[in-house]
Each structure stands twice: as structure tokens, then as C-alpha cells.
Design brief:
Radius of gyration: 21 Å
Structural class: mainly alpha
Shape: elongated
Distance between the termini: 19 Å
Helix content: 55-70%
Strand order of the largest sheet: 1-3-2
Number of helices: 7
Number of domains: 2
Strand content: 5-15%
Order of helices and strands: HHHHEHEEHH
Length: about 150
């Protein structure tokens, strides 16, 4: 987080010399220590986030792949005249323990064409699917597997 604060400082200044770097390091350190004290940040948490970064990038790659795949799956409905058979499904995937993981899964489902997460309560999702075929395998989808892996320490 300190590096991010320092990078923003340098970008906002537009140039870098030793005075700007020294003052930016002091300001960045002060903001970082403030975040550690009052916003429950810690160096350990930052190190854990850096270790989990490759898994997060893998999850984002899976999201992009699923967006493209779903977009092509919806082409017959948009251009081919195929009639959708909408469905509201309740799913409760196992193994996603954190609120961050649950919200990330809800957002992944919503960003994928043809599905929208209507609600998330107590780990249960209410998902509107454009067609019944899109609802198959939601509880054990690639998103769920990647988020489980991302949450693992």
C-alpha cells in the first residue's frame, strides 16, 4: 500500500527529483501508518495480498473468458430469433467464506451476459438467468472454484 501511495504521489507531481521523492516517501509513510492504525491495515495483510495477486489475476482472466463465452452463447437469442426460457435460480455455493469473496462472485455472475444477481443474503444468491441452460452449473462454476482458491491462505 505504501508503494501505491508513493506512486500516486509521483504521478500527481508529474516529475521526480530527490526532494519530491523524499517528501513523497514521508507523506506516503504517514498515510500508510494512519491506515494501519485506524483502518485495520497491516504489513502482514499487504504481504498476503501480494501473495494472492497471481490467483486474483487468474480469476480476472477466467472472468474475461466467461464474458466472451457467454456473449457468443447469447448470439442465437439476439440474432437467431431463439426464444429465451427465463429462470430465477437460488444457489448456495459452498466454500466461499468471506464477504469479499461472496460479493466478488455476485459481481462475476452479473458481469457475465445473460445472468444477473438479484440478491445475496446469508451466502444464498438469487440469480436471474435469460435461459435455463445458463443456470446449469452455477453452484460449482469456474468462478466458485477460482474464488475458493483465491481465498485460501
Amino acid at each position: 500500500m505504501f508503494v501505491l501511495f508513493f506512486a500516486v504521489w509521483v504521478l500527481l507531481n508529474g516529475k521526480l527529483n530527490w526532494e519530491i521523492a523524499a517528501f513523497g516517501a514521508v507523506i506516503s509513510a504517514a498515510i500508510y501508518f494512519f491506515c494501519c492504525k485506524f483502518m485495520h491495515y497491516s504489513i502482514k495483510r499487504d504481504i498476503d495480498n501480494i501473495r494472492r495477486l497471481p490467483r486474483l489475476l487468474s480469476l480476472l482472466g477466467t472472468l474475461l473468458w466467461e464474458i466472451c463465452r457467454s456473449a457468443f452463447a447469447l448470439l442465437p437469442y439476439v440474432y437467431g430469433g431463439k426464444r429465451p426460457d427465463p429462470l430465477v435460480a437460488r444457489i448456495k455455493p459452498e466454500g466461499i467464506d468471506s464477504d469479499t469473496g461472496r460479493v466478488f462472485l455476485a459481481n462475476c455472475i452479473t458481469m457475465t451476459p445473460g445472468t444477473i444477481t438479484g440478491s445475496l443474503k446469508d451466502g444464498e444468491y438469487l440469480v436471474h438467468c435469460l435461459d435455463r441452460d445458463l443456470a446449469e452449473g452455477l453452484e460449482d462454476s469456474s468462478f466458485v472454484k477460482k474464488i475458493r482458491r483465491w481465498e485460501a491462505k
